[in-house]
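quick q for whoever's on today - can somebody do inverse folding on this one?? i tried earlier but teh output was garbage lol. tokens:
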């Protein structure tokens, strides 16, 4: 089970941090990441991080503004979102990938509005 937190309403240019904690029932996680789906749009991979070597991916749309980090001891991944834009409004989903399957969080709503 993945438990997300950090949903909120923020003004353009503002910041927000999302957290996602993987429960102890999920073992051997290879990567943790975030996807998002904006209203009327296809899902988009935002960022992910490898647990073993720390390799990181960012979508072009968030490079330089978002930072992903992990706490392996807590099985938790964070997404620090800065300089938020209207187009960042979406439901953000946490994703964990193991050697056998993927897991998804319930989604957390981020709204960027003035």
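ok took a stab at it. sequence:
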């Amino acid at each position: 089970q993945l438990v997300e937190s950090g949903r909120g309403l923020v003004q353009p240019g503002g910041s927000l941090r999302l957290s996602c904690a993987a429960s102890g029932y999920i073992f051997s996680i290879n990567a943790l990441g975030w996807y998002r789906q904006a209203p009327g749009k296809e899902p988009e991979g935002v960022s992910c991080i490898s647990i073993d070597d720390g390799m990181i991916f960012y979508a072009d749309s968030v490079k330089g503004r978002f930072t992903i980090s992990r706490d392996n001891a807590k099985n938790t991944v964070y997404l620090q979102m800065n300089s938020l834009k209207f187009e960042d409004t979406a439901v953000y989903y946490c994703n964990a990938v193991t050697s056998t399957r993927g897991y998804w969080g319930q989604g957390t709503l981020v709204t960027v509005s003035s």
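fwiw Residues 30 and 53 are 10 Å apart (CA to CA). also The chain has a mean pLDDT of 93. so keep that in mind when u check it
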